[in-house]
Amino acid sequence: MADTSDFRNGLIIKFKEGLYTIVEFQHVKPGKGGAFVRTTLKNLKTGKVLENTYRSGESVEIIRVERRKYQYLFREGESLVLMDNGTYEQINVDQKLFGDGEKFLKEGIEVDLLLDNNEEIISVEIPIFVQLKVTATEPGFRGDTATNVLKPATLETGAVISVPIFVNEGDLLKVDTRTSEYVERVKN
Known about the structure:
Helix content is 0%, strand content 53%. It is mainly beta. The strands form three sheets. It has a six-stranded antiparallel sheet with strand order 1-6-2-3-4-5, with no helix packed on it. Strands 9-8-7-10-11 form a five-stranded antiparallel sheet, with no helix packed on it. It has a five-stranded antiparallel sheet with strand order 14-13-12-15-16, with no helix packed on it.
């Protein structure tokens, strides 16, 4: 058993019968009373974020996971087909494990699978930033640049995001998959 002194960002622990990753932690030593550790935890299945406080030295169960790179190939019904780059073995993964970021996946993109000791998939991590081409958007008009005017744009994966007025069809964009937001226009 480990304790709170082993905490680090990205560590996966068992908490309330679920698996959580530590997003952030802070060791606090008040002038009066015992020390404690304040943590921000993210559920690996649902993505729900919560805060919890541990007494300093409290025991926690650390989950050992293996991270493997897989390449996204295509969608097949309610699952996505991934290929191991080393063995070329293909597996089907339930699309629910991808969360909202699944709409930004295009063929050939690499994702990380987190596997437990029983080779079961715990979570799927997609890249934080992806580059996608705009397939449809309204044309921008001159003079609309006085304020941060946004318009909808459809990307090559079918996802729709809000983009600045100067973005045109055919532009390559950098998109944040965590927030579904436009980051910048990429030079070709």
